[in-house]
Backbone:
């Protein structure tokens, strides 16, 4: 008995491949989650920043618009300052310095409750400027007033100058007429000492911090008015500067927003986007993590299943190897020489399942003129069937060697078997040949009848078929028939002829045709040709055992005995 | 293979077996039959084999085991010609009790068979 072929494993088993896949998934999963986190953060921060930029730009634009509105309000206020001065000057020019007329007109503008603290009319001659009349109490020195008036003489508009006085900082206005330079007007206003002015909620400045400066610079010295403490100046953050024409100089208005100028949603949007984006990113990570884990679990399951399958396959292979080893051990490696018979046999394992069947054949020399042969089939498959086959085979062999005729051997053997206790039943064709009488006696226990090929004609031997061994029933019967030299007997198991798609008789007829139409040079070649045609197709799912021998004839047998003696 | 039970016109329980009876299902067929025999331990088990399209030696083994475990109580009813031929080839035609081929509907039951009503 040769050693069973070692079960060779493929270089990378399915289980190892699955384990590798799990590791790859773990690595890939970590990378994927990292990528999602980075992408989510980048997109969120980007969108949030863009939204903030848009809001910032909108804010700046709104600040510009509101500052422009505030500037136009200031422009109106400047016109309101300029208009009475112009009218007063024109009245004085028209009335040639009529003090009463001037005072009557100006009285409503000057004084503690008027637009100006004081307004004075000046007459300019070659000798210089001299005050004609004054309404209210002048704050600045005469020199300050004269200096402004001198500037005004050449200015198409009024001129503005800051001064400080005992009552606090003030602004002086001087208006002349370069075409009629005789009469000019000088007026003064006080600025609150701390420069702070209240802002009404309905005014154009309601939403703004502001500081106004006389002249183009925004130094503290030039500061006119503001709503902020001096310590908070100049205005920081997002600020807008607007220059407003103010006499011969400019009024510089600097503003910054008090709060958010646009709608609340514009202000909150970047934060909403940031919070929402972070939430979505976290959610995506959670979902991805869960999917990856589920996938990994599935891979692990697959790995487990693959391992189980491999183990299963391995054990099946081992089982198959054991069964085949056992069966081949039970079959003769080589048929013994029997007279001058030419003997051939085949065993073909079926493609069905891993278990081997219980088919067998054997041939033995009983004495100088007799030999026995058996072809049998144990129902069922596997080691159990194979051991049962061995039991039946050696029992029958013993009876044959003792010299029992075939039907007696079957009766004796059948008595020792019980299909219900064994779980198997056995069909057997058993025969004894007489080499000198040229006869064969056979008995049949539920088996298929043998075929004899004589003179180019194949035919089936008819027997009295008894029940399979172990079933019980009537005693077995033998039949005896003659064999002519050169004729061949073929005994076989049902695997050779049985096909699911057709009746057994069709298979038997096909076998007879096969045997008859074969053109062999030897009995071995005959079996090769028959098996090729009968079992070459994939349908041959069952095991097949075939035994064949060609008759040598009485002359050969007698000659052989003579040789020996 | 399909196994089902029905009552024939005589009121006897019949176990109908249909399909291919081979090694894979032989034990199932045997166990179904043994279960039916165990339920009523006086009545005969009638096995309707008209639906059997294929049977191998394992299937035969199941029938023999049923028969030998309950001598005289197993009757094969309406076996297909294929099953009949298989029984002949296996030398079991005299061992197993077979009711002649033919269906009650077609009326070609052999003379002498009990016809109800």
Residues:
């Amino acid at each position: 008995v040769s050693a069973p072929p070692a079960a060779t494993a493929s270089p990378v088993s399915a289980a190892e491949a699955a384990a590798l896949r799990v590791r790859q998934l773990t690595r890939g999963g970590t990378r994927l989650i990292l990528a999602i986190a980075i992408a989510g953060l980048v997109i969120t921060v980007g969108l949030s920043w863009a939204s903030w930029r848009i809001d910032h730009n909108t804010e700046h634009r709104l600040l510009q618009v509101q500052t422009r509105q505030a500037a136009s309000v200031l422009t109106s206020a400047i016109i309101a300052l300029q208009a009475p001065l112009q009218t007063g000057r024109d009245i004085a020019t028209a009335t040639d310095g009529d003090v009463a007329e001037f005072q009557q007109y100006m009285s409503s503008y000057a004084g503690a409750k008027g637009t100006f603290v004081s307004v004075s009319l000046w007459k300019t001659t070659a000798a210089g400027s001299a005050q004609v009349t004054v309404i209210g109490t002048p704050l600045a020195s005469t020199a300050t007033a004269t200096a402004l008036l001198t500037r005004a003489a050449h200015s198409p508009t009024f001129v503005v100058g800051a001064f400080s006085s005992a009552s606090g900082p003030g602004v002086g206005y001087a208006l002349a007429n370069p075409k009629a330079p005789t009469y000019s007007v000088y007026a003064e206003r006080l600025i609150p000492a701390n420069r702070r002015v209240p802002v009404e909620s309905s005014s154009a400045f309601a939403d703004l911090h502001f500081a106004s400066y006389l002249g183009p610079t925004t130094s503290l010295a030039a500061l006119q008015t503001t709503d902020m403490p001096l310590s908070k100046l100049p205005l920081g953050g997002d600020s807008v500067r607007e220059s407003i024409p103010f006499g011969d100089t400019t009024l510089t208005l600097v503003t910054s927003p008090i709060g958010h100028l646009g709608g609340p949603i514009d202000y909150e949007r970047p934060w909403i986007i940031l919070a929402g984006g972070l939430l979505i990113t976290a959610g995506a990570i959670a979902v991805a993590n869960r999917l990856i884990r589920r996938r990994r679990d599935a891979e692990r399951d697959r790995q487990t299943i693959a391992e189980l399958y491999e183990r299963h396959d391995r054990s099946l292979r081992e089982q198959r190897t054991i069964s085949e080893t056992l069966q081949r051990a039970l079959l003769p490696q080589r048929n013994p020489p029997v007279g001058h018979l030419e003997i051939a046999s085949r065993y073909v394992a079926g493609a069905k399942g891993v278990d081997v069947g219980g088919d067998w054949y054997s041939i033995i020399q009983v004495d100088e003129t007799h030999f026995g042969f058996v072809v049998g089939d144990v129902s069922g498959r596997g080691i159990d069937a194979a051991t049962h086959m061995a039991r039946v085979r050696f029992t029958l062999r013993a009876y044959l060697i003792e010299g029992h005729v075939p039907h007696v051997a079957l009766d004796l053997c059948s008595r020792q078997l019980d299909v219900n206790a064994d779980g198997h039943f056995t069909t057997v064709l058993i025969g004894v040949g007489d080499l000198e009488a040229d006869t064969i006696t056979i008995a049949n226990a539920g088996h298929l009848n043998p075929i004899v090929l004589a003179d180019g004609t194949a035919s089936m031997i008819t027997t009295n078929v008894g029940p399979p061994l172990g079933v019980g029933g009537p005693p077995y019967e033998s039949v005896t028939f003659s064999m002519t030299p050169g004729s061949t007997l073929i005994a076989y198991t049902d695997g050779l002829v049985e096909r699911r798609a057709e009746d057994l008789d069709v298979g038997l007829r096909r076998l007879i045709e096969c045997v008859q139409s074969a053109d062999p040079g030897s009995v071995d070649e005959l079996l090769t040709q028959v098996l090729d045609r009968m079992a070459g197709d994939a349908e041959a799912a069952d095991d097949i055992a075939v035994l064949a021998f060609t008759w040598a004839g009485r002359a050969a047998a007698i000659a052989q005995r003579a040789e020996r003696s | 293979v399909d196994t089902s039970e029905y009552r024939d016109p005589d009121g006897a329980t019949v176990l109908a077996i249909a399909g291919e009876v081979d090694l894979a299902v032989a034990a199932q067929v045997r166990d179904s039959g043994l279960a039916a025999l165990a339920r009523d331990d006086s009545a005969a088990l009638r096995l309707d084999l008209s639906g059997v399209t294929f049977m191998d030696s394992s299937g035969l083994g199941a029938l023999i085991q049923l028969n030998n475990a309950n001598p005289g109580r197993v009757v094969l009813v309406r076996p297909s010609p294929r099953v009949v031929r298989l029984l002949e080839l296996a030398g079991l035609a005299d061992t197993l009790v077979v009711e002649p081929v033919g269906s009650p509907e077609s009326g070609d039951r052999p003379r002498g068979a009990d016809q109800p009503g």
